[in-house]
Amino acid sequence: MKNIEVPTKRGVLLDGSLFCETKDPDTILISVTGIHGRFKSNPFYKDIGHTLNKSNIDFIYAQTCDAIRKETKKNILTGEEEIIGSFNEDFNNCEDDVEAYINYAEKNNYKHIYLAGHSLGANKIIYYLSKNNDKRIEKYILLSPADVVHLVDTISVEEKNIIKEYKDKGKDNEIIPFQLFGWVECITRTAYDWVYNNILDNVHANKDGDFSQINNITHNGAMIIGTYDKFTCGDPIGFLDNINKHTKNPEKNKLLFIEKTGHVYRRKEKELSEVILNLIKEWQIEKNENK
After folding, report:
1. Which pTM does this prediction carry?
2. Residues 262 and 245 in one domain
């Protein structure tokens, strides 16, 4: 594993990690992190990387801005230092973030690129693929996508009113006086986007939710979730099935369930890694057979 810095079009350098044990690899899986999706809280990333490497598949742990709470980075275009993190994330930049890692893989001569995302990272790749029919991507993997409505419902009416009040007073860049969801410190602009203007609100336990982004995706792939996942209104299996029903070709996607584990696959990291490896091997075989 080695640390990499991946440049975005807007000049922000994103921190990632490349798992590579082969001299001339041609296949890679990029996995976009969710909010605060660091190795410490999401150890399954290392299992995935090491498991794939044993089969000559490279892996990128792809942090976007919200993987960390707050960090000072130098913008390579302006030369100025800026602070990024979950506290001031602009969801409109997620397309740029995802594309940066795909560009990195392409520039490093990977012929076969698979794109995954965990939690809010899954929502980000849904957004990206809904806007980009990117032929460089062969398949996608959604790991525990996040029902944003379920998260926002944990915010009290009083807290929502405070966010509106700060927004109306032009306090866009001031820290709100409470932690969003009880664990995310953020500025008014970011809090407002979470609650009222969230472009990543694209998967739902509710059958009547807006699935237009999912329906716009031309790629096929797989969806994986733990049967104890709490971000699905109590029905992880029904949640994935509901998402898949709104894809263009539901019959071409695989739905996979990791038994007796939750959102970050605790104690089932190895099983998750093997499931992902087997998926990629199946897709490789299918591609060779269709040549």
Report:
1. 0.96
2. yes
